């Protein structure tokens, strides 16, 4: 997998021959979670500016690490952007033993700083352009489609999520293999420049004047790794004929950079051929289940199972008008993608390193604990609940985020009517999962969003005039009176129960007061029902009226009684939750009056 831990990297022996069928793959994380839409970080002059930056930073610090203040001066950017840059590098670093990965709060990150050579590689790939979707070779072909003035990047700049499903356009979106090949092609073109940034100069002439040591070569692990289907990652230095089996006490001598470049280009070409051979039969034959379009009326948990690649993320894809619960045992690897899910409730109760939510609408999505980064993109009317180290929100509309995050939420692109609120749920293994991936319960910066530009310079599509300098619309805080707790039912959880009994994040005073008021209101309603003195006929009328109001509400929220009668848990979209169903819902009786119970909300809603 592209996000395997350093321990896994070291446990796998290096391939001994070409027959071992190992290939050189790109790491997805820097390209999916590491691109920042900050124009001053994009250098289109090859290595000229970055070589000067390298000299400046190395001459000012003997430790080869720089903090945000130094970086801000060198790049002439605000300190908060420099700090964001270092935090982003920390979230996509390949080496978990780097002290920057273990750093928590911003002041710790500043004290440790980022390694200069990791910084150079990161800055170089800011010139990367994302793959254009299939079927849209000319971006002008979609210029007149909704929304006409949007700066949305990618294919969804032309279609809203619902339009995307109804037009059956999923097949035109890039596949994982296409994106992988696109990333490799980019590296094939630029790997020579990247090597020159990592190399040291000698007194030789021409190509022999640049040499690469083993420790500098290891920084290429930021972008590339050796592995194969079902295998762990292999450290790059142990996969080469130059540095393999070298003694740490007696490092291998530096080798000419030109020799390393030839070896890399040969392996990249081999992998591109491998990907092309693997993809060609799929293009000529029937598509796989993960690529098929699913009609909204037919989708359900029984017909859609998560698809995954041993090297890539687990997919929860195409869920419609249904609910889906996934535990750690249901996922392959430590990253997950929720793609094109509509009018549904998705629970991923697992510890993850990376997560992506893409192209979803009218859904509630609960993602347990994310230790590196979560990205939410091209979503409409989605309620997301997550505990994560960091989150990036791009090109979303009318979404509500209940967050427990250790770093400031990053908001980029064309967003409208976003709201943020403090984290509002728990499940029994939540704190165990948070500890496992490194999410700190004592830090929650949910209400400190940082906004960047509307236009993403990594987008391959053109944008309307006049938006290049516009600032993204930020998110507003949810009114405390509208804050509600979501209770995840214990039948959703795994057999191995944990110790978490309540929300691990402390609530701000205004939201805590609202929570207590709602609990008090619920208790008072129950007390009134207990004490109500009514004749039997009046009690039946009250029960009937309560049920009728609930059914009307349920119908308005896009469900009918037939759907409700035949599932164990289902979604409701006024309160955005799910509930156990027994003859439409579970019931409680107070003083002979039967009323509807909503076990997933501990406070009033809907």
Automatic annotation (TrEMBL):
Residues 299-311 have a biased composition (Polar residues). Its main location: cytoplasm. Residues 279-312 are annotated as: Disordered. It is found in: Cytoplasm, Cytoskeleton, Microtubule organizing center, Centrosome; Cytoplasm, Cytoskeleton, Spindle pole. The keyword Thylakoid does not apply. Keywords: Cytoplasm, Cytoskeleton. The keyword Cytoplasm applies. Residues 287-298 have a biased composition (Low complexity). PROSITE patterns: C_CAP_COFACTOR_C. Residues 306-439 form the C-CAP/cofactor C-like domain. SMART domains: CARP. It holds the Pfam family TBCC. PANTHER family: TBCC DOMAIN-CONTAINING PROTEIN 1. Belongs to the TBCC family. This is TBCC domain-containing protein 1. It comes from Rehmannia glutinosa.
